[in-house]
Amino acid sequence: MANVSRNRTSQEGLPVNPVVADYVKTLGNEHKMLVVLKAQLYGGRWEPMLDDLKNRLAGKPYIFKLTNRINDDVERIGEMREFEEAHDVDLADHVELS
Fold first, then answer.
1. Alpha-carbon distance 67 to 35, whole Å?
2. Of 1, 13, 64, 83, whose CA is between 20 and 30 Å from 56?
């Protein structure tokens, strides 16, 4: 764990990789909202949230309503999902969920 900073900890109390910490700092409110929704409404999974967004675009039933920025939100989710996979991390462990 050479890249892990011992001075920073996640909400879980685990050491935080500086790359993850730096990425989380760049997240805007729209990104953070999506991370919170993923954690609180979708069991920490992106797939059901993306299904909801796509269903809304297709006029099918969906679980919750976001703003009219659905395409932007889908893009944000893709970006954050790729980051999570590349760094083996759940951003919900690093973003304030309140």
1. 15
2. 83
Alpha helices in 1-98 (DSSP H): 18-26, 29-41, 46-57, 70-87
Q: Give Rg (Cα) of the chain.
A: 14
Q: Which residues pair with 5 in a beta bridge?
A: 16
In the chain, what are the domain boundaries?
28-93
Whether 83 contacts 13, CB under 8 Å: no
* Residue pLDDT, tens place only, 6-47: 345 566 666 778 899 899 999 999 999 999 999 988 989 999
C-alpha distances out from residue 34 to 20, 40, 97, Å? 17, 10, 10
Residue type, 82: E
- Classify residue 1 as exposed, middle or buried by CB count within 10 Å of its CB (0-12, 13-18, 19+): exposed
Q: Does residue 83 carry a pLDDT above 60?
A: yes
15 in helix, strand or coil?
strand
Taking alpha carbons only, the member of 26, 23, 48 closest to residue 38 is: 48
